[in-house]
Protein: DUF721 domain-containing protein
Organism: Polaribacter haliotis
Amino acid sequence: MSKRENDSFSVKDLMQSFIKENNLSKGMQKIKIEETWTKMMGPGVATHTTSVKLQNKTLIINLTSSVLREELSYGKEKIIKMINEELGDEVVDKLMLV
């Protein structure tokens, strides 16, 4: 029998290296941004959100309520800043509320 090495790695480190090696970081950001939107805005806004998309550093949010769209448009810069802080990177430059 061969001798086993006792190098131990955390699951987090292994997942990060797997994502980096397979060039999956953009896809993971897209998934994480949807979760972040729901978590940050709460269930009230999430129920009126039909889709969350990230395209070329532009976050596109489809909303069913025109009143909510108008309210959120006043705080676009703050929303962008909060999302980028939550993700820990400059992922979003522009926010479009559709």
